[in-house]
Amino acid sequence: xxxxxxxxxxxxxxxxxxxxxxxxxxxxxxxxxxxxxxxxxxxxxxxxxxxxxxxxxxxxxxxxxxxxxxxxxxxxxxxxxxxxxxxxxxxxxxxxxxxxxxxxxxxxxxxxxxxxxxxxxxxxxxxxxxxxxxxxxxxxxxxxxxxxxxxxxxxxxxxxxxxxxxxxxxxxxxxxxxxxxxxxxxxxxxxxxxxxxxxxxxxxxxxx
Length: 208
Known about the structure:
The protein is of the alpha+beta class. The chain has one domain (2-202): Aminopeptidase. It is 23% helix and 25% strand. The protein has helices spanning 13-17, 20-25, 34-46, 87-101, 117-125, and strands at residues 2-3, 49-54, 63-68, 73-78, 107-113, 129-130, 136-139, 145-154, 192-196, 202-206. Strands 1, 2, 3, 4, 5, 6, 7 and 8 form an eight-stranded mixed β-sheet that branches. A two-stranded antiparallel ribbon has the order 9-10. A hairpin with an 8-residue loop joins strand 2 and strand 3 (63-68).
């Protein structure tokens, strides 16, 4: 299940993101500051970047998955203690299905640090392939320059990227639902959606 981040998640954050490889392969700063992390997530929401907590059942957060809605770029990170269980792959497949089916994004992208083989394997498991986009240089959470490769996935039966309907995204900082329920009848709970990932497994996205 994917859900919004909560103030109650604060005690779990250092164990998830205060790790050398997290800072080396993402833009999450080191040394890690849990309070600043939640502020950052809410600021990014106002900018159209959605960060959701990866959980098993809506409880304890195990990692995150992120989406920059306007440009169709996804990202993910799983805490060291929770790796090796397929959490990143399942979260990425779920968000990929959501973006293709609900938001109408036909081309999705990942930016992966060169040589980050675990992240490459996650990308491949969700149907992404290395693109011929130019390698770009960005600064990681340690303040070091890193080269990023682009991996992408094109929705079946389409030819590439199209602009998403961003009117279907609620960008208000401070949480709440992220997407509307225009295409799914969720009168019993409008903050939840059940989606099947690329392997046919059923998952719930919690957006409120």
